[in-house]
Amino acid sequence: MPQTALQHFDEDVARARALIAHAETLPEGEMLRSDILRSAWMFAVGALDAYFSDAYTDVVAATIIAKQRHDAMQLPEFLYDIKFPVRAILESYATSSSWSAAATNTLTWNFQPF
After folding, report:
1. Which tens digits make up the pLDDT trace of 59-82?
2. pTM above threshold 0.70
3. Contact 97, 54 (CB under 8 A)
């Protein structure tokens, strides 16, 4: 399982590249080749989406932890209104490989000042 957002991204992009390598073995103009190349593009777009979602979750979670450890820390007002799946903070990548997996059982959470 990926341990960081960047590792997750790298693994997903490697899978997209594998699709491209497979498609290049097929004859030019074949519909299957076109379909596989198109799916590689979609995989790459999904990798980018997952990267930003994972990185965003990591930053918000780290901010919440820092606030809990340092009560005097001042947070920007918008941070208190962020809503996202609680699982994204509570579960590690070992049990949930991505933001989208965590989002399947979404519990909306309103972060409130301590």
Report:
1. 888 888 888 899 898 988 888 888
2. no
3. no
5, 58 Cβ separation under 8 angstroms = yes
Contacts of 6 (CB under 8 A, 6+ apart): 51, 55
Query: Position 2: which residue type?
Result: P
Distance of CA 31 to the CA centre of its chain: 31
| Composition of the chain by helix, strand, coil, percent to 5 | 65, 0, 35
3-state secondary structure of 91: coil
As given in the structure block, the two tokens for residue 91 are 């579960």
Residue of 57, 55, 61, 45 whose CA lies nearest to 12:
45
